[in-house]
Amino acid sequence: MPLVDIRKMAVKAAVEKTGLGAFNVVLLEFAHAEVEAAESCGLPVILQLSENAIKYHGGHIAPIGKAMLAIAEQASVPVAVHLDHAESVDLCREAVDLGFNSVMYDGSKLEDLENRKSTAAVVEFCHAAGVAVEAELGEVGGKDGVHSPTARTNPEDAAKFVADTGVDLLAVAVGSSHAMTERSAVLDTGLISRIRDAVPVPLVLHGSSGVSDEGIVAAIEAGMTKINVSTHLNVGFTSVVREALAANEKLVDPRKYVGPGRENVRNEVARLLNLYARR
Ligand code: G3H
Ligand code: ZN
Description:
Blueprint: H1 6-16, E1 20-24, H2 28-41, E2 45-50, H3 51-56, H4 61-73, E3 79-86, H5 89-98, E4 102-105, H6 112-128, E5 132-137, H7 155-165, E6 169-172, H8 189-198, E7 203-205, H9 213-222, E8 224-229, H10 231-247, H11 254-276
Parallel strand pairs: 1-2, 1-8, 2-3, 3-4, 4-5, 5-6, 6-7, 7-8
Helix pairs in contact: 2-4, 2-11, 4-5, 5-6, 7-8, 10-11
The site of zinc ion has 5 residues, from loops.
C-alpha cells in the first residue's frame, strides 16, 4: 500500500494511548525484518533512516532510501518512512524529494533561536510537500556517546517551541539516553504527563533501547506516542550473528549468519509492537 501519513498514525495512537513503534534501518535486512514483523502483528510501523546510517551507506540517501520506500510500499500494513536525526537541512530536502513522508530535523545542538528558525524553515518546505516534521527540544542525553540521562524538557518551553515552529511531533528529554545496551534507564513519567498536557502534538521517546518493557508501557500510559528503538535491535542481531559464526567456523555465505540475525530482529520487533499496542 502507499505510505501512510505518520501524523494520522500518531494522532490515532495518542488518542488510543498506545505506542507507535519506530525502528532504525542500519542494514537493509532491518527494513525487511521490521515490515515482516508489523505484518505478522497487523500493526503500523515506522522505518527510520538516520543521517549516520546514510553516511555508512556511502553518504547518499538514495540507494538505501529507495530500497526502504520499495519495501514499505509492498507492505500490507501502514508504514511511514522517516529520516531520523538529520542535522542537515539539505538532507531533509533530499529525503522529501526522494519520497520520504516524515523527517526529523535535529537542530538541538544549535543556539535556541537558530534552532527555532531553521526548524520552522524545514516545516515550511516539508508541509508544502505533505511531509511531517519531528523536531527536538532539549537534547536527549547520550547522543554523542556520553551517558548523560539528566537532560530534561520543560513543558512550557516545549509548548512554545511547537507554537513557534509548527512541528507535527516533538522529541523530548525525559530520562532516556541514546545507545544504551542495558535497559536500566528510569523515565520521569510525571514529566511526560506534564509535557503531554502542555503540548498539542504527539511526543517522541528517543533512546528507548535503554528502557525496560515496564518503563516503556508506563511512558505510553503517561502520554508518550512514538517509540524510537535502534541499539536494542543491534544487540540482538549481533549476538545471533556471533553465535552462528562461532558454531560453524566454515560458514562463508553471509545469508547463513545474517539471516538468523534478521529473524531475531523480526521476532523482537513483533514482540515490541504488541507491547506498545498493549495486547
Ligand atoms: O532516533 C533513534 C533512537 O532514539 C534510537 O535510540 O539506539 O538508544 O534505541 P537507541
Ligand atoms: Zn534518537
